[in-house]
């Protein structure tokens, strides 16, 4: 088995999955363009704005990708390449794709509200409050951690800071050109992509050097602005253009695989346990999140994506297709490190981290393409910049999603006026960013991070739980969402139980309490849903 075979098998299986299983979901949910989407019926020019499918796919993919499908497979490769490959292959088709596609359709059918609103509709108000509170708290953690990651990157690689600032300016011009000046999308895209890569060159010539603290303050100001400004002027166009950055990295990496023809040098199966990661079950399914399934995807799908969906049929390529593209990125990440000698891979992973291992592996593939003449050093810089660019994308998307969760938590029934001030998008964003900043400057953020993997997958389980209740209400066959939901609950409950015990024994009582509370949340919502399903 070599890298070319792994890539070709993945491509074939994903195309088959999209056509057959994606079609099955489309028929089951009766996806129909005759159903008007909220982006048209509730268009407000800020959050609800119809977007063409390629633009929305770019926004959605850039938002869900981040560093997850790169870091997860690289770390989990310590178990061996076979478990990671099989989970990425079949998890994306039968669990992640179902989760993402169904979340978008369910949201669109409910005024493009979040999964929390769907839980309220079919499970109850208390279930909604619990879900929204948990989701908001998880997103606050994402904001704090990604602010640290991005500010670290900007401090140590000043050229990436310059490129990122220029990306933002180009995105604003791009948004104005297609929405206000009505410039053709293809022409605008070509110009935008050319300028995007010129920004990378400009970053090398004019690096912006600031302290880490200064960058953190600037980032908090940026994510506040990104959360409250109309989605078409910054968030959507920036994500769309940035997606071509990652597309280029993926296409270049896959072309390089065919020229390099790398063998698979790490073991097919290494061990049932990895130090500081855990046992194969449940650690594999928590560590490899975004490449197979991630709860964050349901927040994006039912948060920003559903509010921009032009017609229902677009949800298949954006939701299901976006998940499979992310699966391909995870496959590239796995092949990149599997081509290394096992000793070299372990050494880089332990001493430099998963992003460094991925960057070196992809750089070697790019270097193998004869007509590009890309050095390994340049390939590493390009790969690392791509990862940092998507960390920033995840940061501003997470802030906007957290604002949505906050507003929805305080939503008032019967048009009562109390609570409207705290629902104001500026107030909601200010509180969200303020709490994220406090957590960032507390210095405690990274110590809580180990729980995030389980919390993220618990989000996926809860989203599938809500989808199961919704599909049951529609009197449709529920197995396509029920079975993934049961599997993800088994994964997260086992993981959280083990984390609670391990951290308690290590005197990490805060982590132990958080894990235990999340465990109880999952159980309580599971019981509520079971009662609903029995009644239906």
Q: What are the key terms here?
A:
536 residues, mainly alpha, Amino acid/polyamine transporter I, two-stranded antiparallel sheet, 22 helices, 1% strand, globular
Describe this protein's structure.
The protein has helices at 3-28, 38-41, 53-65, 68-76, 81-108, 115-122, 125-156, 158-179, 185-205, 212-228, 235-260, 280-287, 295-305, 314-338, 342-351, 354-367, 376-409, 420-423, 425-442, 445-473, 479-505, 509-535; strands spanning 273-274, 278-279. By secondary structure, the chain is mainly α. It has one domain (3-101, 114-260, 281-535): Up-down Bundle (Amino acid/polyamine transporter I), CATH 1.20.1740. Strands 1-2 form a two-stranded antiparallel ribbon. Helix 3 (53-65) crosses helix 17, helix 7 crosses helix 19 and helix 7 packs across helix 20 (445-473). It is globular, with a radius of gyration of 22 Å. Mean pLDDT is 88; it is low at 414-418.
Question: How is the secondary structure organized here?
Answer:
Elements: H1 3-28, H2 38-41, H3 53-65, H4 68-76, H5 81-108, H6 115-122, H7 125-156, H8 158-179, H9 185-205, H10 212-228, H11 235-260, E1 273-274, E2 278-279, H12 280-287, H13 295-305, H14 314-338, H15 342-351, H16 354-367, H17 376-409, H18 420-423, H19 425-442, H20 445-473, H21 479-505, H22 509-535
Antiparallel strand pairs: 1-2
Helix pairs in contact: 1-5, 1-14, 3-11, 3-13, 3-14, 3-17, 4-14, 4-16, 5-13, 5-14, 5-20, 5-21, 6-7, 6-20, 7-8, 7-10, 7-17, 7-19, 7-20, 8-9, 8-11, 9-11, 10-17, 10-19, 11-14, 11-16, 11-17, 12-21, 13-17, 13-20, 14-16, 15-16, 16-17, 17-19, 20-21, 20-22, 21-22
């Amino acid at each position: 088995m070599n890298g070319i075979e792994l890539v070709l098998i993945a491509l074939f299986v994903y195309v088959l999955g999209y056509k057959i299983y994606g079609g099955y979901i489309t028929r089951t949910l009766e996806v129909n363009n005759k159903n008007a989407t909220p982006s048209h019926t509730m268009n407000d020019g800020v959050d609800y704005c119809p977007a063409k499918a390629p633009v929305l796919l770019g926004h959605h993919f850039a938002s869900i990708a981040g560093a997850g499908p790169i870091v997860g497979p690289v770390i989990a490769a310590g178990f061996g390449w076979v478990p990671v490959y099989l989970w990425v292959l079949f998890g994306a088709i039968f669990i992640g794709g179902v989760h993402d596609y169904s979340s978008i359709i369910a949201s669109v059918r409910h005024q493009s509200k979040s999964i929390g609103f769907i839980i309220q509709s079919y499970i109850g108000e208390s279930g909604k409050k619990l879900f929204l509170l948990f989701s908001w708290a998880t997103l606050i953690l994402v904001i704090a951690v990604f602010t640290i990651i991005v500010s670290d990157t900007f401090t140590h690689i000043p050229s990436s800071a310059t490129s990122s600032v220029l990306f933002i300016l180009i995105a604003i011009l791009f948004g104005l050109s297609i929405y206000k000046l009505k410039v053709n999308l293809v022409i605008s895209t070509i110009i935008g992509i050319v300028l995007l890569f010129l920004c990378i060159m400009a970053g090398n010539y004019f690096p912006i050097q600031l302290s880490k603290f200064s960058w953190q303050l600037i980032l908090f100001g940026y994510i506040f602005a990104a959360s409250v400004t109309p989605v078409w002027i910054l968030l959507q166009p920036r994500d769309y253009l940035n997606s071509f950055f990652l597309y280029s990295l993926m296409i270049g990496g896959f072309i390089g695989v065919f020229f390099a023809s790398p063998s698979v040098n790490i073991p097919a199966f290494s061990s049932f346990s990895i130090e500081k990661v855990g046992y194969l079950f449940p650690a594999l399914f928590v560590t490899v999140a975004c490449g197979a399934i991630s709860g964050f995807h349901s927040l994006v799908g039912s948060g920003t994506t559903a509010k921009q969906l032009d017609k229902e049929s677009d949800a298949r390529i954006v939701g299901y297709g976006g998940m499979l593209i992310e699966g391909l990125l995870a496959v590239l990440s796995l092949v990149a490190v599997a081509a290394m000698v096992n000793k070299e891979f372990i050494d880089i992973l332990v001493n430099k981290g998963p992003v460094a291992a991925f960057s070196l592996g992809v750089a070697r593939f790019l270097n193998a393409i004869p007509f590009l003449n890309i050095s390994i050093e340049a390939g590493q810089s390009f790969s690392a910049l791509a990862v940092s660019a998507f960390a920033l994308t995840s940061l501003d998307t997470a802030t906007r999603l957290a604002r949505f969760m906050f507003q929805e938590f305080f939503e008032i029934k019967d048009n009562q006026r109390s609570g409207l001030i705290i629902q104001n998008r500026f107030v909601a964003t200010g509180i969200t960013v303020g709490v994220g900043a406090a957590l960032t400057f507390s210095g405690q953020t990274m110590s809580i991070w180990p729980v995030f993997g389980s919390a993220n997958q618990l989000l996926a389980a809860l989203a599938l739980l809500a989808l199961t209740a919704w599909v049951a209400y529609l009197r449709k066959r529920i197995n396509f969402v029920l079975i993934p939901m049961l599997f993800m609950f088994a994964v997260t409950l086992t993981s959280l139980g083990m984390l609670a015990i391990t951290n308690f024994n290590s005197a990490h009582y805060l982590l132990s309490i958080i894990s235990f509370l999340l465990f109880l949340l999952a159980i309580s919502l599971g019981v509520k849903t079971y009662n609903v399903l029995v009644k239906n």
